[in-house]
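Worked problem 6 (solution included).
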Amino acid sequence: MKKGILLLSALTVLGASSVAEAKENVCVFDLLGKAGESYKLLEEWALAAKSWGGDINLIAYQDEAKVESDFKAGECDAFYMTSMRARSYNKFAGSIDALGGVPSNSIAQKAIAYVLDKRNNKRLVSTIGKEQFEVAGIGQIGTAFIFVRDRSINTLEKGKGKKFAVLHYDQAQKMMVERFGAVPVMSDISNFIKKFNSGEVDIVAAPAYAFKPLEMYKGLGTKGAMFNFPVVNVTADLIIRPGKFEDNFAAQSRSWFVRQLPKSFALVKRMEAEIPAKYKMNLEKEDQEKYQKLLREGRMDLTKQGIYDATMMTVLKKARCTVERTNFECSLGGE
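Solution. The predicted structure is:
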């Protein structure tokens, strides 16, 4: 009898220690895999997480769809991928990437810091079915600009009928491209630049992060251009299953991400500056305002449809009008 009790006690201790020693699997999407800046950021985060009770095992992915399928299958306790794809897990955080909602790095930094502030703790927890998810961080990837294979496509009118690569899972992109009169070509984040470089599409929106490693100069050739008009700010969300982590882990993680923002934005600005000047073109002020109005109308429609979070749209407008008080929209209602 005593032997049986001792054996049971030993097994209980072993079981408890194995639970304590279990690592949290965090699946990280980065177009460049372990060589990319997103993965490097998460390596720093994993080190910091040890002091919050985390024992993180990072798994690198270059296929974002695979991250999501593995997360749904329970192979990941958390994931880090673009907010456009992560929006279905938390619409509030995912709406930072609303089309035209964040037109500059300074506004982006304000917006991310606001979302991760403790006043929004409740908004960052969501329940889908029987599962709970929590936003534990947001990272800046960069402002996406319009790239064209032929710089003569320099107005909306000239873009009508042209093929524009859009991410198939983001309804917002498809709707706006159709509104502009271009033809949306369903793509994935792993192949949309390849389609541009090969000539399968005429237009693409991409951040500076993609320019050098994905060799966008091949698609630009001698006739192409990048228009200095921001269409969307690209971020990445760290979403966790809170039950797999220590209490207060997510709050400490969010604070860590906020502290990294100055460094992240410095990197983004450096990558933007590294794009050769010969490709950069400015739109006329009149055209810029016209496009801003179209993007604003699109955001409002998408918010009514429930794709974007209404509270976040109000937050972003306040941020834009704090930085650019003379902007036409600051005297208008609706967002």
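Discussion: Strands lie at 24-29, 56-61, 78-82, 125-128, 131-148, 163-167, 183-187, 203-207, 225-240, 280-281.
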